[in-house]
Amino acid sequence: MTRSTPAEMRPKRARKVRAPLADRVGPGRNASESPLAWLFNRRDRDGNPLIGEAEFNAGERLRADFWFAQMSPNVTQSWSVTASTGSGRRGAHAADQADNVIAAAERVRRALDAVGPELAGILIDVCGHLNGLEEIERRARWPQRSAKLVLGIALSALARHYGLISEAPAAPRTARVRHWGANDYRPAIDAG
Description:
Blueprint: H1 35-41, H2 53-68, H3 89-115, H4 117-128, H5 133-140, H6 146-162
């Protein structure tokens, strides 16, 4: 028969103390694998980044959704939990994860619809498949350095879709004076 010790005499377990949300460090990111990080870290002649922070964040958000939605091509067999069929708790977790994957795929689809079919291709290549700009230019037979311009336009449209850049208000059109005259003035056409 074993004797139990009173609760006051038992050693207390140390509780894990979680850092506040603002102090937590997110998952590491390899900046050398992302063309967006390369563009964001490079500077132009005036010292400005080649893409702005809003464009970078929009591209990274699309990249995260693209990855989470499992839209990138698989080259090996998947051994993930979602691929297994199970019952009980693991099966419920897989169903929840499948819903999240479907939601991420829907977010990617809406973002690409918002930028339009002309710009969606370069976003998929750069943000989703992590292709370099030189490779995109070579494959599309574009002039050198043109992919950077097209990507900048696409990322701006994507940032606008995500609400990272506010819509620029349209400048009010001012009426031009076309002629001087009274309200009932009608010009005469010379037939000669």
